[in-house]
Amino acid sequence: MAKMTYVEASREAVREAMQADATVWCVGEDLGRGSVFGQYLGLQDEFGKDRVVDTPISEAGIMGAAFGAAMVGTRPIVEMRFSDFALCATDELVNQIAKARFMFGGQSRAPMVIRKPTGMWRSSAAQHSQSLESWYTHIPGLVVVCPATPQDNYSMMKAAIASDDPVVYFEHKNIWGMEGKVDRNLEVEIGRAAIRREGGDLTLVSWSDTANLAIQAGDALATKGVSAEVIDLRSLWPWDKEAVIASVQKTGRLIVAHESVAVGGFGAEVVASIAQEVTMKTPPRRLGAPRSLVAYAPNLEDQMRVTADMMVTAAMEMIKT
Question: Dihedral (C-alpha) 285, 290, 294, 299: value to the nearest 10 degrees?
């Protein structure tokens, strides 16, 4: 076990994958200096400019070049800097990469990891703060991953690089510095949720940094005599519906919380899917951001946030119903 930050964990996973497989390489803007958050710090010095490739500022060009390279046998790790910027490469990802295996009758594939730093961070404002993971769960052919801890950012990055399908990989900008123990031998299966806290009164489902807030909410609820089970989905497609069903069958109550806008958010998919399978004691609840743009001003940005206190309040209302 080694102590690492969230960003160090993913960087180590990339380094080890590149050491083990010469077809793994990285491509994006400013990777030679480590990129925006230090995800690639030192990798160009170790592996050279042919495997850690700096590009012009053209997201469409980056994604298209990586797609072509993936089609001929390599495993690109594509850095989009911010999930917002990746929208410039949506056609390549949605209309080409996601559909390649299907449209070529399985004769070709696109094993790629598309990294999209996500979420609100330090007053980054409307064009640098979006949480868009729900968009990509709607696209057949894409895998969608949202790790919440250093361990998962290590293990899930390894799993994503090994995947033969394109993986849209969301890392939350607010937790780059989060520290935790990382077991380099621990393998994580994409599509398998983690039960972060066991409980019997209520099920609290989340992912990404909001899953860490859900643990705080579970601890706070315990002081009020409420036992909350906290499930971190870790990946949104595939997602571990069976784990959530089993939990809600036990607790009879469900709250889904996420940072992204509630309207059309993946929380709605979770709630609808579980409601079709389980009879609950109370109606399920969704907690998400209002359908509003993220402001620069910290006091207005805070109005968009889903907090642990919001989860506690919703849980107590459900318990009293």
Answer: -80
Strand 235-237 vs strand 143-145: parallel, antiparallel, or unpaired? antiparallel
Question: How many C-alpha atoms does 22 have within 13 Å on its Cβ side?
Answer: 0
pTM of the predicted protein model: 0.95
Shared domain for 316 and 205, answered yes or no, is yes
Token pair for residue 231? 């499930």
Domain final position from 150, 182, 214 = 182
Of 122, 152, 182, the last residue of a domain is 182
Instruction: Establish whether 172 is a catalytic residue.
Output: no
- Give the strand pairing for 179-182 and 2-5: antiparallel
Alpha-carbon distance 98 to 114, whole Å? Answer: 12
Which residues, other chains included, contact 60 with Cβ-Cβ below 8 Å and sequence gap of 6+? 88, 89, 91, 92
Mean pLDDT of 254-260: 98
| H or E element, residue 154 | helix 150-162
CB of 112 within 8 A of CB of 76? yes
Looking at the structure, tell me whether residues 217 and 266 fall in a common domain. yes
Domain that holds residue 235: 194-320
Residues 109, 215 within the same domain: no
CA atoms 286, 308, 5, 197: torsion sign: negative
Q: What is the pLDDT of residue 126?
A: 85
Query: Please, what is the Cα angle at 205 between 144 and 210, to 5 degrees?
Result: 70
Q: Residue 249: how many CA atoms within 13 Å on its side-chain side? A: 9
Average pLDDT over residues 90-111: 94
Report whether 93 contacts 63 (CB < 8 A): yes
Find all residues with CB under 8 Å of 318, minimum gap 6, and list them. 202, 253, 255, 282, 285
Catalytic residue among 128, 138, 172, 258: 128
Q: What is the pLDDT of residues 123-165, one digit of tens each?
A: 888 888 899 999 999 999 999 999 999 999 999 999 999 999 9
Tokens 């033969």, located at residue = 164
Report the chain's mean pLDDT, rounded to a whole number: 96
